[in-house]
Amino acid sequence: MAVLGGGSFGTALADISAANGHRVKLWMRDAEQVGSINNNHVNARYLPEFQIHPSVTADTDLAAVVSDADIVFIAIPSKSFREVVKKTGGLLSGKIVISTTKGIEPVTFDLMSQILVEEVNDARIGVLSGPNLAREIVAKALTATVIASEDDELCQTIQSVLHCDYFRVYSNSDVYGVELAGALKNIYAIVSGMGAALGMGENTKSMLITRSLAEMSRFAVTLGANPMTFLGLAGVGDLVATCTSDLSRNFRVGYALGQGDSLEDAELKLGQVAEGVNTLKQVKQKADELGVYMPLVGSLYSIIFEGNAIGVLVKGMMLREQKTDVEFMSR
Ligand SMILES: NC(=O)c1ccc[n+]([C@@H]2O[C@H](COP(=O)([O-])OP(=O)(O)OC[C@H]3O[C@@H](n4cnc5c(N)ncnc54)[C@H](O)[C@@H]3O)[C@@H](O)[C@H]2O)c1
Ligand SMILES: O=P(O)(O)OC[C@H](O)CO
């Protein structure tokens, strides 16, 4: 088995699979980080306080890592996803390839599994998404996720590779819905972090999360996703985890913005990728094109990219036209 990307989530997946008896190779670019995994079983940069299973080995040689594997998980930030897939130079053909990346490619509006379809011949493609804060997984907190594919056998294979007493894997055939939900929730985690910095109460948190669910579902259903997917782990599940935890990088960026930091400073402080910032840009553009009503996306965009005051977020939630509660389910 191979995992491309030795950040926090790639390492968490490698650790589970290795503990389940698989020989796992982690592809990382940094030779020092590779040494730390191979010699000390620690991901010194991303998860320094955790011991990784000794059957996880790391390598900087992408071709060697991929050639050896029948299943390849990809946990690379969306901005480099296509570049890394191209670098595998055809070696992914015939393999099970699972994207775990929650982002949207600029210009094409492609999700990562769509990039895989475009770039790889004959792969069996799936998407893994859900409320999966990496740090909680490596700490063995009870967690569930979703494997999405139309290929039932692939779903069963991934369930057996990852299932253990603290990690449960459900399946869903709505690949587009599961994958889009994972990308969209990052936008609302930024909004929630901002609200947390401003001291919002429980009523407000609940309204924000529920209206976020309505908004992301409305957008996704317009693009062809199944609204039921948004009631599951990859939808409301991931939205709740990310909008309520300061382990979420997107939440933390929002929190810093809410404290008055610029986007640049907020991202600098974080030192890791918060996918929601790029996703916000892509979704705002697409929603405008399609005429989808997304007041939270519009307000957040105007705060981050047009210099509006945080008060517009309140207007986005409170002052727009009245709507019915769950209109996205009854389209
Ligand atoms: N961290 C989580 O809790 C979590 C959970 C589920 C899904 N995800 C998703 O997984 C993806 C990766 O997240 P992460 O948390 O592991 O990120 P991370 O920032 O912890 O790690 C990303 C890794 O990718 C590597 N990388 C970046 N650009 C690269 C390139 N061009 N070539 C090779 N390697 C490159 C980095 O060096 C790093 O090792 C994101 O889309 C994220 O949304 C994260
Ligand atoms: O740290 P974040 O905000 O990228 O969120 C991590 C995962 O997507 C949570 O499921």
Automatic annotation (TrEMBL):
<feature type="binding site">
    <location>
        <position position="249"/>
    </location>
    <ligand>
        <name>NADPH</name>
    </ligand>
</feature>
<feature type="binding site">
    <location>
        <position position="249"/>
    </location>
    <ligand>
        <name>NAD(+)</name>
    </ligand>
</feature>
<feature type="binding site">
    <location>
        <position position="185"/>
    </location>
    <ligand>
        <name>sn-glycerol 3-phosphate</name>
    </ligand>
</feature>
<feature type="domain" description="Glycerol-3-phosphate dehydrogenase NAD-dependent C-terminal">
    <location>
        <begin position="174"/>
        <end position="310"/>
    </location>
</feature>
<keyword id="KW-0594">Phospholipid biosynthesis</keyword>
<comment type="function">
    <text>Catalyzes the reduction of the glycolytic intermediate dihydroxyacetone phosphate (DHAP) to sn-glycerol 3-phosphate (G3P), the key precursor for phospholipid synthesis.</text>
</comment>
<feature type="binding site">
    <location>
        <position position="134"/>
    </location>
    <ligand>
        <name>NAD(+)</name>
    </ligand>
</feature>
<dbReference type="Pfam" id="PF07479">
    <property type="entry name" value="NAD_Gly3P_dh_C"/>
</dbReference>
<dbReference type="GO" id="GO:0051287">
    <property type="term" value="F:NAD binding"/>
</dbReference>
<feature type="binding site">
    <location>
        <position position="275"/>
    </location>
    <ligand>
        <name>NADPH</name>
    </ligand>
</feature>
<dbReference type="GO" id="GO:0046167">
    <property type="term" value="P:glycerol-3-phosphate biosynthetic process"/>
</dbReference>
<keyword id="KW-1133">Transmembrane helix</keyword>
<dbReference type="GO" id="GO:0005975">
    <property type="term" value="P:carbohydrate metabolic process"/>
</dbReference>
<dbReference type="InterPro" id="IPR006109">
    <property type="entry name" value="G3P_DH_NAD-dep_C"/>
</dbReference>
<dbReference type="GO" id="GO:0005829">
    <property type="term" value="C:cytosol"/>
</dbReference>
<dbReference type="GO" id="GO:0046168">
    <property type="term" value="P:glycerol-3-phosphate catabolic process"/>
</dbReference>
<feature type="domain" description="Glycerol-3-phosphate dehydrogenase NAD-dependent N-terminal">
    <location>
        <begin position="1"/>
        <end position="154"/>
    </location>
</feature>
<feature type="binding site">
    <location>
        <position position="46"/>
    </location>
    <ligand>
        <name>NADPH</name>
    </ligand>
</feature>
<dbReference type="GO" id="GO:0046474">
    <property type="term" value="P:glycerophospholipid biosynthetic process"/>
</dbReference>
<feature type="binding site">
    <location>
        <position position="130"/>
    </location>
    <ligand>
        <name>sn-glycerol 3-phosphate</name>
    </ligand>
</feature>
<keyword id="KW-0547">Nucleotide-binding</keyword>
<dbReference type="InterPro" id="IPR006168">
    <property type="entry name" value="G3P_DH_NAD-dep"/>
</dbReference>
<feature type="binding site">
    <location>
        <position position="9"/>
    </location>
    <ligand>
        <name>NADPH</name>
    </ligand>
</feature>
<feature type="active site" description="Proton acceptor">
    <location>
        <position position="185"/>
    </location>
</feature>
<feature type="binding site">
    <location>
        <position position="248"/>
    </location>
    <ligand>
        <name>sn-glycerol 3-phosphate</name>
    </ligand>
</feature>
<feature type="transmembrane region" description="Helical">
    <location>
        <begin position="292"/>
        <end position="314"/>
    </location>
</feature>
<feature type="binding site">
    <location>
        <position position="273"/>
    </location>
    <ligand>
        <name>NADPH</name>
    </ligand>
</feature>
<feature type="binding site">
    <location>
        <position position="249"/>
    </location>
    <ligand>
        <name>sn-glycerol 3-phosphate</name>
    </ligand>
</feature>
<dbReference type="GO" id="GO:0141153">
    <property type="term" value="F:glycerol-3-phosphate dehydrogenase (NADP+) activity"/>
</dbReference>
<dbReference type="InterPro" id="IPR011128">
    <property type="entry name" value="G3P_DH_NAD-dep_N"/>
</dbReference>
<keyword id="KW-0560">Oxidoreductase</keyword>
<keyword id="KW-0472">Membrane</keyword>
<feature type="binding site">
    <location>
        <position position="102"/>
    </location>
    <ligand>
        <name>substrate</name>
    </ligand>
</feature>
<keyword id="KW-0443">Lipid metabolism</keyword>
<dbReference type="GO" id="GO:0141152">
    <property type="term" value="F:glycerol-3-phosphate dehydrogenase (NAD+) activity"/>
</dbReference>
<feature type="binding site">
    <location>
        <position position="238"/>
    </location>
    <ligand>
        <name>sn-glycerol 3-phosphate</name>
    </ligand>
</feature>
<feature type="binding site">
    <location>
        <begin position="5"/>
        <end position="10"/>
    </location>
    <ligand>
        <name>NAD(+)</name>
    </ligand>
</feature>
<dbReference type="InterPro" id="IPR013328">
    <property type="entry name" value="6PGD_dom2"/>
</dbReference>
<feature type="binding site">
    <location>
        <position position="134"/>
    </location>
    <ligand>
        <name>NADPH</name>
    </ligand>
</feature>
<keyword id="KW-0520">NAD</keyword>
<keyword id="KW-0444">Lipid biosynthesis</keyword>
<feature type="binding site">
    <location>
        <position position="102"/>
    </location>
    <ligand>
        <name>sn-glycerol 3-phosphate</name>
    </ligand>
</feature>
